[in-house]
Design brief:
By secondary structure, the chain is of the alpha+beta class. The chain has one domain: Thiol Ester Dehydrase, Chain A (Roll), CATH 3.10.129. It has seven helices and ten strands. Strand 9 and strand 10 form a beta hairpin. Helix 1 packs across helix 3 and helix 2 runs antiparallel to helix 5. The N and C termini lie far apart (48 Å).
């Protein structure tokens, strides 16, 4: 069994014994690392193909996240991690690329947890990921993951609403953006992206497993959605910061529309009923 497969099994076995709403929950202090290793062309090409990235040029802005996912999963499935990994929902991500990374550059990776806070629908953990080349920090990210559960007390609920309000206030405004493309997403997109990324959370794989966590059908990965939007956003080497929020799940199969401003700096993913699934923005260098 691969290390990633072992983590998935450990997560499945440990999740029923973890209670997300425990008031004394604490994050593990562990910082998991992986020594420098080259990017394998086959997996990179498969990832680029499913997300729509060009076959040449620097690494896609979202790819270090995928490379570090086995470390993230190992940390989340550890005994000290307070939230059950099964059913965790990715709610937002911020990425800061310090320079373009070429596929030939071996990446050193590190993952650690930086925050645990109440959310209006449960508890949300913030995870940090770093990528280095020869000791130089070249890429970093922060991500929020939601464990959905009933609020324990009115005080926690109030703090959860305040957290949600701050999150929405920080989200980029994307109303009125023109639609530039329409994408038809097949029912097996979650399984296909899971095979490429290693993220085989049951909510993405099949209607039967998604229903166990309150979803009527399997949902698309948030990281696929933001990657697919970035593949349309133009010059990746000019991007200096990305923020994306996953506001509503994309139930598969689906037809969605990509909308963006003229520069691709503000974008969103909408359903046919104009429901907003994802809102994002990027900052670009001016020189």
């Amino acid at each position: 069994m691969t290390p990633l497969g072992a983590s998935l099994v450990r997560g499945a076995l440990s999740s029923p014994f973890k209670r997300a709403g425990r008031p004394d929950a604490a994050l593990p202090p562990d910082r998991l690392t992986r020594p420098a290793a080259p990017v394998e062309p086959g997996p990179l090409a498969a990832y680029g193909g499913i997300c729509g990235f060009a076959a040449t040029g620097p690494l896609p802005l979202t790819y270090p996240h995928v490379r570090a996912f086995p470390l993230t999963l190992r940390l989340m499935t550890g005994r000290a991690f307070p939230l059950p990994v099964l059913g965790l929902v990715h709610t937002w991500i911020e990425i800061t690329p310090h320079r373009p990374v070429r596929p030939a550059e071996p990446l050193e990776l590190a993952v650690y947890a930086v925050g645990l806070s109440p959310h209006r629908r449960g508890a949300e953990v913030t995870m940090a990921t770093e990528a280095r080349v020869g000791g130089e920090l070249v890429w970093e990210s922060r991500s929020g993951y939601l464990s959905r559960h009933r609020r324990a007390t009115p005080d926690h609920a109030a703090r959860g609403r305040a957290t949600a309000a701050r999150s929405l206030a920080a989200a980029p405004a994307a109303e009125g953006l023109p639609v530039l493309a329409e994408w038809r997403l097949p029912s097996d997109l979650g399984r296909r992206y899971g095979a490429v990324s290693g993220d085989r959370n049951p909510i993405h794989l099949h209607p039967a497993t998604a229903r166990l966590f309150g979803f009527p059908r399997a949902i698309a990965h948030g990281m696929w959605s933001v990657a697919r939007c970035l593949a349309e956003a133009g010059d990746p080497e000019a991007i200096r910061f990305l923020r994306a929020e996953f506001r509503a799940p994309v139930l598969l199969p689906a037809t969605v529309t990509y909308a963006a401003d003229a520069s691709g700096s503000a974008f969103e993913l909408r359903g046919p009923d104009l429901r907003t699934h994802l809102v994002g923005s990027v900052l670009r260098s001016t020189g």
